Amino acid sequence: MTEQEGWNDVNEHVREQWTDETTPFERVYEVVETTREGASAATIAERALVSEPTARRHCNALVNTGFVATEQDGRTTLYRRDEDQVLLSRIHDLRERADREELLDGIERMKTTIRGYEDTHDAISPEELARHLSGADSEGWADVTSWKTTRRNLAVAQAALAYDEASEQLTA
Prior knowledge:
This protein is mainly alpha-helical. It is 75% helix and 8% strand. A three-stranded antiparallel sheet has the order 1-3-2. A hairpin with a 2-residue loop joins β2 and β3 (76-81). α2 (24-33) packs across α3 (41-48) and α5 (83-97) crosses α8 (138-171). The mean pLDDT is 90.
């Protein structure tokens, strides 16, 4: 058996296990959850190991929940996860895991981390740092990635805190 045949056997086993352990809806959900650019029902069906009508039906159900957004490419409907829903889900998850004090502490730590990047690289943003890096500066590029991630996480934490504060005001 060649190495390629071995990989094909492993891939086939994983596909069989996935279809045995999940419903068609769950597979369509998982595929769409990782779809940032629009994909047709046929493409989603192929990835989710379901028929095209099944993929379309489940995608339309997910559109109705707000989890999936659509766009038109000529006559073809493209489906992708809705970024607003992803953001709201992240904010909700964070609010469930952290109380107000933990949010405030995390926000302060992330601000300190960002100030550290600014001071270390004498830059005001990861984008500015990226403009000055050479392709070989792996440490600098790693800092660009970490800085962007920290900035994104800070925004989510601040949004979770703001949501809590707004919720308190509405119930007061």
